[in-house]
Amino acid sequence: MNIWIAASDGRAELVEKFLSEGFTAESKDPNGYTPIHAAASYGHIDLLRELCSAPYSGSVNVRDNDGDTPLHHCEDANTARVILEELGGDAKLTNNEGKTALAVCEEDGEFTDLIQYLRGVSGQQEEPLGIDSEQLAQFKDNLRYTLENDPETDDPQSIERRQKLEQILNGGNPEQDLENYIRDLVRSQLLADDEPSKRRKD
Q1: Are residues 113 and 38 both part of a single domain?
Q2: Rounded to whole angstroms, how far apart are CA atoms 198 and 110?
Q3: Closest CA to 18 of 63, 49, 56
Q4: Residue by residue, what is the 3-state secondary structure of the chain?
Q5: Structure pTM?
Q6: Residues 178 and 137 in one domain
Q7: For residue range 163-186, what is the model confidence (pLDDT) as tens digits?
Q8: Would you tell me which of 5, 9, 45, 153 could form a disulfide with 158, CB atoms 3.0–4.6 Å apart?
Q9: How many C-alpha atoms does 113 have within 13 Å on its Cβ side?
Q10: How far apart are CA 125 and CA 61, in angstroms?
């Protein structure tokens, strides 16, 4: 056990023990990963607040060896909100690849709520995806039809997609969440289509 694992597990008392023995909130492992990164990554908000407040006073904008801040490691909107609105985090900071936390999240295509929140605080609008409202509605109808009529399958990707759609349609805001899901699908396809040309340029 070390301070980084303890922070990842949200074990505040154990983290405090390590801090009392000479570690700091910004102590780095060989990859530059700090307890603050760990707490942010796993959504341990109370521990994150503690590490960034007196007497530990760690910086919520601390960077690892890749230049990633705790916000780059964040996986949920609530933690990001605390980082930016309470602890003085900066959403404009970029890592060694020149990417903001939002850019990293959009590339991964996961954590839709986090992406929407970061877009909001960044003042960034949805980029045009080359589909109009009628096509978007058709996408929605097709996905609903697939969910209701496709036979069960053992394919892991199909199972994961079905579970995601069921989660969206049973959620509190299915129309918006479904639209965001479709946008992410289209965006991922556009990135995949661009990838060969990018490789040829290198």
Answers
A1: yes
A2: 23
A3: 56
A4: CCHHHHHHCCCHHHHHHHHHCCCCCCCCCCCCCCHHHHHHHCCCHHHHHHHCCCCCCCCCCCCCCCCCCHHHHCCCHHHHHHHHHCCCCCCCCCCCCCCCHHHHHHHHCCCHHHHHHHHHHHCCCCCCCCCCHHHHHHHHHHHHHHHHHCCCCCCHHHHHHHHHHHHHHCCCCHHHHHHHHHHHHHHHHHHHHHHHHHHHHC
A5: 0.64
A6: yes
A7: 877 787 777 777 767 777 776 766
A8: 153
A9: 13
A10: 25
Q: How many domains, the chain?
A: 2
What average pLDDT score do residues 33-40 get? 98
Single residue among 122, 157, 183 that ends a domain in this structure: 122
Residue ranges making up the domain that contains 31:
3-122
CA distance 181 to 62: 32
Residue 99 corresponds to which amino acid? K
User: Is 146 contained in some domain?
Assistant: yes
In a domain, 53, yes or no: yes
Are 60 and 36 a contacting pair, CB within 8 Å?
Answer: yes
